[in-house]
Amino acid sequence: FIDYLNGKRISEAKRLIEQSKANITDICYDVGFKNKPHFNRIFKRYCGITPMEYKQEVRSKAANGGGSRP
User: Fold this and answer.
1) CB-based burial, 33-51: b 16+ in 10 Å, e otherwise
2) pLDDT above 90 for 61
3) What is the pLDDT of residues 23-60, one digit of tens each?
4) Per residue, what are the HEC states of the chain?
């Protein structure tokens, strides 16, 4: 069950990173994590990169006219 829940939380976090201007800490709490280090670990486990790296990647692709990561 926890894997399912974390997967849903990370999917929502990715959506918020892509579509909002909220900072990573706010997104961490908005999707239900209690502390940022744990959020960072789980995000990296699911995505292979940290939330900040993901945000930079999304912003870079947007600036270059590219899409978002699947």
Assistant:
1) beeeeebbebbeebbeeeb
2) no
3) 999 999 999 999 999 999 999 999 999 999 999 999 99
4) CHHHHHHHHHHHHHHHHHHCCCCHHHHHHHCCCCCHHHHHHHHHHHHCCCHHHHHHHHHHHHHCCCCCCC
How many CB atoms sit inside 10 A of residue 31's CB? 19
pLDDT score recorded for residue 62: 82
CB 34 within 8 A of CB 25: no
